[in-house]
Structures are given as structure tokens and as C-alpha cells.
Design a protein that fits this description.
Layout: E1 5-9, E2 20-25, E3 38-43, E4 46-52, H1 67-76, E5 81-90, E6 100-102, E7 105-109, E8 128-129, H2 139-151, E9 156-157, E10 161-165, H3 173-182, E11 186-188, H4 191-200, E12 204-213, H5 226-253, H6 257-269, E13 271-272
Parallel strand pairs: 1-4, 1-5, 5-12, 6-9, 7-10, 10-11
Antiparallel strand pairs: 2-3, 3-4, 5-11, 6-12, 8-13
């Protein structure tokens, strides 16, 4: 089975320069417009498709990202894998700004987002899908990201729980302290429903969370701000690009047939018609 890797770039890593042989493609979807045009090309000989989650000029608020259109378009163009980056705040002392967390779990605190393709309105997605999500991120793909980060000597954490809030505002101190007490590792505004929709499509999805700040749960030190996030983001983006460029050829060399078939079977067996 041919491997095609979608890359959804969040803040700081939606630069098409990482793609060679670039070609811009617009995809019509049953769910409306994607965040931006999709950029097809290759990275070290592996077919890749880049999409800027918030648009090229970062004009789309987290709530208004058309997650279903984005994921459907990538699947329609043949993506077997999706690697994403996401800026995030740290909710635990050991997750330091400048480090990368390879996610394996999430907590959903969003409020306004459609989280399924199976909404009863599209013939392609018939029935009700009761999707098991004990393992939302692809462990096989995440393992390759972990290995690349270690090989490159980049400070990272092999696992982590992301708490996704609605945004676009940051948390109050009381909220941040509550989320800290729950034991979540990081906080952002975009993992949900992106990871869920990828799972519904049978795609191997893995995420690099780029820590930029300590949110606002700490009694001492600076609290999260746009200025602080941007000052850390450039360095984080360079680290993430290095990991992606190292991991992508490794992903492309493996046979994913059995894993992708298992993903498809999970969705089929969880759908009530």
C-alpha cells in the first residue's frame, strides 16, 4: 500500500518550503472549504501534502477551523498518515517551554465543534459510529517520531495528554489550576476534533506538541501571552521540522497494510447501521 503523508502545520510550521516539487491543489469537499489550498510534493522522496490549519496568514480562529473539510480532503488525496504540529502550553512543571511532547491521549473541553463525519447528513458516512478512543493517536507512527527526536537529541517527552479548550482566549488562572490538578500535560485549542476525525477515516495520526509557555496555573513566573508564545515558537518550529524530515522517510519505508486494514476494520465494526 502506497504511503502518502499529510502534514497539518499549526503555528510556526505551515511553511511550504519543507515540501519539494510543490503543487497547489484545491479540493471541494462535502463539508465546505479547507483552511487553505493543499500543497502536494515530496519530502526525501515520500509523497506528502501540507495544509496550514489556520490558513497561510493564520486568519482562522480555532473554533472556525473546518476540521472535517481538512481531514476529508487529505484522505481524498490518498493520505494514509497525518503528522501534525500544535503549539501548546504546559500544565506540568516537567514539560518545559522549548520542549516537544509526542501525544498519546487527550481530554476534550471544547464546546462548539462537530466531532464526527457520521452526522446523518452525508451518504458516504452512514449510520452512527461509536468509535473506541482508548488509543486515539497511532502508536506505531508516534514511535517513529520518538525515535527521530531521540536520534536528533531534541528535548522531548514520549507521551503526553493534551487538554483541548475552545479558545480563542487563554484559560483563567482558576481554570488552568483545575486542568493542572487533573494531571493533563499540555493545553491547546486544536487537537479535538482533529484526532477523532482522523481516526474515523482510518488514518494513522500522530502529533508533535510544541511547548511555548506554562499557561497560567503557576503562582510565580510569567503567564501565557501572545508575545511569549511567539518568542519560543520559532525555535520549536525548527526542531519539529527536523523531526518530521527524519521520520517521514522511515514511515515511507515501512509496510503499513495490516495497520491500515485494522484501522478500517475498527471503524466498520463500530458503526451501527
Amino acid at each position: 500500500m502506497k504511503v502518502v503523508i499529510g502534514i497539518i502545520g499549526g503555528s510556526g510550521i505551515d511553511d511550504p518550503d519543507i515540501i519539494e516539487n510543490r503543487e497547489e491543489v484545491e479540493v471541494e469537499t462535502p463539508f465546505g472549504k479547507t483552511s487553505d489550498c493543499l500543497i502536494k510534493g515530496t519530502i526525501k522522496g515520500v509523497d506528502c501534502i501540507l495544509l496550514a490549519r489556520h490558513g497561510k496568514k493564520h486568519t482562522i480562529s480555532p473554533t472556525n477551523v473546518n476540521f472535517r473539510a481538512n481531514l476529508w480532503a487529505l484522505k481524498n488525496l490518498g493520505c494514509t498518515h497525518i503528522l501534525v504540529t500544535t503549539a501548546c502550553g504546559s500544565l506540568q512543571e516537567d514539560k518545559k517551554p522549548g520542549e516537544i511532547v509526542i501525544l498519546d491521549q487527550f481530554i476534550d473541553r471544547t464546546q462548539k465543534r462537530v466531532q464526527t463525519f457520521y452526522d446523518g447528513e452525508h451518504d458516504e458516512f452512514r449510520g452512527i459510529l461509536h468509535l473506541p478512543l482508548h488509543e486515539p493517536f497511532c502508536p506505531h507512527t508516534s514511535k517513529i517520531l520518538q525515535t527521530s527526536a531521540k536520534t536528533l537529541n531534541i528535548d522531548h517527552h514520549n507521551t503526553g495528554t493534551m487538554l483541548s479548550i475552545e479558545g480563542p482566549r487563554f484559560s483563567s488562572r482558576a481554570e488552568s489550576k483545575l486542568f493542572h490538578s487533573w494531571g493533563a500535560d499540555c493545553i491547546n485549542m486544536t487537537t479535538v476534533p482533529e484526532v477523532i476525525l482522523a481516526k474515523e477515516l482510518g488514518i494513522c495520526y500522530a502529533a508533535l506538541a510544541l511547548v511555548t509557555d506554562y499557561d497560567s496555573w503557576r503562582d510565580k513566573g510569567e503567564h501565557v501571552s501572545v508575545e511569549g508564545v511567539l518568542s519560543i515558537m520559532k525555535g520549536n518550529a525548527m526542531k519539529a521540522k527536523k523531526i518530521l524530515c527524519d521520520a517521514i522517510p522511515q514511515i515511507g519505508q515501512q509496510d503499513w497494510t495490516a495497520i491500515l486494514q485494522a484501522n478500517t476494520s475498527l471503524v466498520k465494526n463500530s458503526t451501527m447501521l
